[in-house]
Design a protein that fits this description.
about 270 residues; mainly alpha; about 85% helix
């Protein structure tokens, strides 16, 4: 059990701290590869949507139906699913629209907005974006941790999907901070720290829920996690993928993500 906990925590840390990858890419890349970002974000959404409806919701039912019966168990699954959506909606309400971390910004676009080291508006944008991402990452961390704790392969899939979607978030923090302060070090660490809330969210969630980890708890958590991931995909990943890309790149990525997730689930049945 202890090894499972360490593995789940490690996956969650990898997913959250991938904001640092986005930060590093921003410093070494002069132009944003929009096609790559669009298809990657679409891929991430495809993985999360497919695994939520096909695997995670089914696991929730499998936990709740034996305890509460077929009718009540399905009702609780559906209520917990929409409860997860409600949770992430409430979190979104605390994030000002002007500082939304999921607005698509290219590296060159942000560079064009400021003279290096002389823009307090960009510094404010970077700091508030980091805070917004940190708030969003709490439930994502719990989602990754819970999945990995009960099914390592499922946890890996979710961690990779969330890591992909954290990369452009890292860019959206580091670039404005760098151009406001002139310090790559400050920009990188603020971006990196915005992802730390993901493993912290997992740790706090686990410590709070540990005394109550029953089949019912896991069932409700799984259904809520499915709701959270579907909302993130539809509200954040796909719209951002569409803004970065042109044509059907985001949709191709979405279908590819679903296909890869389906194949991996079939191979490890």
């Amino acid at each position: 059990m202890e090894n499972n906990i360490l593995f789940a925590f490690g996956l969650t840390a990898f997913a959250g701290l991938s904001t640092g990858i986005g930060s590093a890419l921003a410093f070494f890349t002069k132009r944003t590869n929009k096609a790559f970002l669009s298809s990657s974000l679409g891929f991430s959404a495809g993985v999360m949507i497919y695994v939520s409806f096909v695997e995670i919701l089914q696991k929730a039912r499998d936990s709740l139906v034996p305890v509460y019966g077929n009718i009540a168990g399905n009702w609780y699954t559906v209520l917990a699913f929409f409860g997860g959506i409600l949770l992430i909606l409430i979190i979104d309400k605390f994030v000002p629209e002007t500082e939304n971390p999921h607005e698509a910004h290219t590296i060159e676009e942000i560079r064009g907005e400021s003279t290096l080291g002389h823009d307090h508006k960009l510094l404010r944008m970077g700091v508030f974006t980091a805070l917004a991402i940190a708030i969003h990452n709490f439930p994502e961390g719990l989602a990754t941790f819970t999945a990995a704790l009960t099914d390592p392969m499922l946890g890996i899939s979710i961690a990779v999907a969330i890591a992909i979607h954290n990369i452009p978030e890292g860019i959206s923090v580091s670039v404005p901070v760098y151009f406001a302060t002139g310090s790559k070090k400050k920009a990188f660490w603020l971006s990196f720290l915005s992802g730390v809330s993901e493993p912290i969210g997992a740790l706090i969630g686990y410590l709070l829920l540990r005394p109550f980890l029953t089949e019912t708890t896991f069932g409700i958590l799984f259904a809520a996690v499915a709701g959270i991931m579907v909302f993130i995909s539809l509200d954040e990943l796909l719209p951002t993928a569409r803004e970065y890309g042109s044509g059907h790149k985001s949709v191709y990525g979405l279908i590819a993500g679903m296909a890869v997730m389906a194949l991996s689930l079939l191979l490890f049945m």
